Amino acid sequence: MEYLIRRFNLNARLAITVHDEIRYLAKDEDKYRAAMALQVANVWTRAMFSQQMGIDDLPQSCAYFSAVDIDHVLRKEVDMDCVTPSHPTKIPPGESLDIMQLLEKGEEAVLDSSVKSSDPPQVSQYAYTPREPVMASLQASLQNDSDHAYLKAQITGDDKELRKIIKEMKPPVKKA
């Protein structure tokens, strides 16, 4: 996200992260472009993790955030009124946009490649080193079916099957 902010001259910055939420502050004129940058950053992140699992085609169902909330106040949900004893006036709602709604914003959401940055990221200073996918290295270490037992045990939802897998993992007891 930092790369995209600098690359496309977005007037935005990280405000807070809490568990699975990320909050950025952005100028009103950059709100849709910052939302698009969040979606792009998410696609890159998901693609990296998918590739490491040996999935070279990122499923569209998990590529984008379900929605990016755009609001002018800090609140849990963009549609909460935020009425309190000390503030009885309802606060107008913000927006919650999925990728399709964001694309419908047109020019307001475009990360324009012709934008010249005043502080461009210097990516050329970093050498690219291709990484072997985690699953590829795991596959290389799995020599026979008994080596798959650990993986099978992790995905089983049946106690009977789990006991069978554990039994198969144990070496046979030699009688004296």
TrEMBL record:
Q: Does the keyword Transferase apply?
A: yes
Any idea of its EC number? Answer: 2.7.7.7
Which keywords are on file for this protein? DNA-directed DNA polymerase, Nucleotidyltransferase, Transferase
* UniProt keyword Transferase, yes or no: yes
Please give the Gene Ontology molecular function terms for this protein.
Answer: DNA-directed DNA polymerase activity
Top-level enzyme category = transferase
UniProt protein name:
DNA-directed DNA polymerase gamma mip1
Which organism does this record belong to?
A: Cryomyces antarcticus
Task: State the organism's lineage.
Answer: Eukaryota, Fungi, Dikarya, Ascomycota, Pezizomycotina
